Amino acid sequence: MGLLELPGHGMREDEGLEKLLPNGPATPTSAMECHRAVCEAMADEILATAAALPYALFGFSAGSIYVYEVLLQLQQRAT
Hints:
The protein is mostly helical. It has two helices and no strands.
């Protein structure tokens, strides 16, 4: 079983979210664009590492919003 964490959290504490931003770290980006980019990147990681395996997603507090959006991404890509 693998663990997928957001950049800047847990084992990825030294990573920044800016590498996930669609226009790079120097370009001002809205909070919604940043959120969408993070969710798309997380869905990409899930599909690359666990697509053929059973997996569970868990998010606490604000993390639950990310989980919901990642699930929507995965569902859209499955159709």
